[in-house]
Amino acid sequence: MHNIKRTFIYIILSIFTIISIFPFIWMIVSATNKSVDVTGGRLLPGTHLAENFRNLLNVVDLVPALTNSAIISITTTVLSLIIASLAGYGFEIYRSKAKDVVFTILLVSMMIPFAALMIPLFRMFGTISQIAPGIGIDTLTSAMLPSITTAFLIFFFRQNTKMFPRELLEAGRIDGLTELGVFFRIFVPTMKTTYAAAAIITFMASWNNYLWPLVVLQSPENHTIPLLISNLGSSAAPDFGIIMTTIVIATLPTALIFFLLQRHFVAGMMGSVK
Amino acid sequence: MIQATTKQSIQPKSRKYNNKLRFKNGLIGWSFITIATVMICLFYFYPMAQALILSFQSGAGSNLQFVGFDNYIRLFTDPTFIAAVKNTVIYLIIQVPIMIILALLISVLLNDKKLKLKGFFRTAIFLPCITSLVAYSVVFKYLFGSDGIINQMLINVSLISEPIQWLTDPFWAKVTIIIAITWRWTGYNMIFYLSALQNVDNSIYEAAKMDGANAFQQFFKITIPMLKPIILFTSITSTIGTLQLFDEVMNITKGGPGNATLTISQYIYNLSFKYTPDFGYAATVSYAIVIMIVIFSIIQFKVAGDKNA
Fold first, then answer.
1. Apex CA B208: angle with CA A6 and CA B232, to 5°?
2. B74-119 confidence digits (pLDDT tens)
């Protein structure tokens, strides 16, 4: 009886596992096959990966898109972490009634859907374009600015600051560090794992961001990876081998982060419900 | 009382000094949160206020005029808007419960201490979460094409004799979107339930077993009540996510066939950037999402709260 139940559990979990990884397998297998074979339903790895990759470099602007995505994601992550951790630390360490009110107001922004912000933001960057074209519409800066500061990340850092030992803070002050000095010399190095988790979630969100870049980045040379894949996916005569190779390459950075830093990855996800 | 007065009279100077120090410390505290607060105001609250003003205006491009509540009245007679709301609500009331039940089921199965390959199952089921929404949507679009691999496999095992029009039939297109979102997010929710389950004391289950509770009773009488806060959290985040659904629909069906899979976010995008831009009306539609998020969140809190009492 017990064994039957056990077997049953393994069968159910195996079914879910197959469903979960089947699209990955298909995607990777398709990247090694010719377009005709992909539509033909071939599920065995082929020998056309190198060919797909060569064609891809000729037909698709993969390298510029990768560069744009990397610039946007890395800059966003670095700035996000600095701004949000300063704020999270400030709200917790210098806690006051007035600041708690401000904090609650900031949290409300998490409920605002991006679709509601998109149009005013687009018009705002349109105005900025007339004054400072360098950061206006169709620049990488405009693609990252709205997503640099999120209430979620401030909340995340505040929650984690609660675990920061206050004695270290006092010790730093006695050693004559300024308040900012305490933050950078003591808080940041102590909270490395918090920063790692925050970096992962921010990088992933930025790397995969689609709607705002779609609105604001109009010229093809500014396109990011999601825009490139979206365009490939809606092309009239798609070459499946090339598309799947592109998707595999685009998924590699996030897959690497996941497998190398799995512990921090989950910590980042769970940060919101601690 | 006397003590207090003496204290005051003895230390007037140091008190003044303390106030000054407190003021200075207060300023330092505020300076830590300034950049973040300004950024949130600039990129969330200011646009939100702008959208509200816009929602009372109408016109093509930047030729906007105040039209009072006309846009809001137009919402109720706009068939495309009504279709988009219908679709979004269908996704919400079908997809979110299916996903949460699946995630709960998997996490309960995975929580078994004697289970082998636990880490493998968990990683594999979580794996869809590492994909970008656009990338997996494009993959699903081809998987579910009319001559795609899913149809071929279903025909091969004789479940169907003719290919299902996953993307071009109004009913099946919705099913495809629901399957896609469920695939992407079930593992995500599972991780939350798994870590919550690890905090549930095993002796509760032991006691329940002694009392003769079967697996189903244990699930509904112990697991669900114990996980209620986290179920509420995940259902609210899933609701907010579903109400804003865009990437998947845009890349799998483009909203079609007709408007059968169109979501509100996508309608806002179309109104602003695909058709002749009508920013005013688009802003009105966007406030509809805001109102829906507030209503659904309140309902979920109420439902969870009632059971608590």
1. 85
2. 888 889 999 999 999 999 899 999 999 999 999 988 887 788 888 8
